[in-house]
Amino acid sequence: MLAIALTAFAGCGRVVFQPNQQAGLAPISPQQQQVLAQQVQEWQRRASQLDQDNQDLEARLAQSLQQVNLLKEEVVATRDQLRSTTQQLKASFAENDSLKKRTDALTASVQRRTGAEIRPNNSLLKDLAVRHLPGVQVRQDGDLIRIELPSDQLFQPGTTTLRPSGVELVRAAVADAARHYPGHIVGIEGHSNGGLAAPNQEAAQIPLTVSQAAVVYDLVVREQRIAAGQLFVVGHGANHPVVSNATDAGRARNRRIELVVYPERAGT
To answer: What is the CATH number of domain 123-265?
Structure first.
């Protein structure tokens, strides 16, 4: 606080204000010093806390930036994966479309070349004479004709030895099929019943069906009833029963050789 001295000069009537050169600052009491010290400490504490908070925020910011970079990399990787997957899907669709076109073209080509189809309720099915022979079954299976010849009538039980009556039955069935479906592919398929057979017996029956079908094939080719190029042999074992194996009659029917006439012709 600055003291002001008032000096009057007699005889001149002028008043002059001058600073009191001897005046000084008011002294600070101990209580005020203590309050100031506490305020300084509080400011220092706050400054330290702010510094710590700033460091924490910088660390969190650095961690967030790192996570953001990782997310960016994942987004880029995901986009690349999606792009690759999209390309693969497009390639698959194109391939499927190409296969469909090729299949349609092949089907059309086969139909044009064969010039004939075996349709359900075809009148030729009724004209097969072999269907009137005892034990012989003839049925339509989609666009296939199946002529069932009982194995018990063809072979000695459990063997590949043809009975004399079995030879005549094969000749009649093959001649009938060749007459009504000239040039068509014919499969010779062997079947067993296997309904009550043990696993080891069933395993033994599978090659027997192949062998029996092969015997019929040899007879047909040897007597030139149907050209070898029109024939093929399959042994199915007990995989395709036509009736239940619960009865003797059912098991007997499932033991069979089937002449299967296909709509396709050989060499086309």
So the answer is: 3.30.1330.60
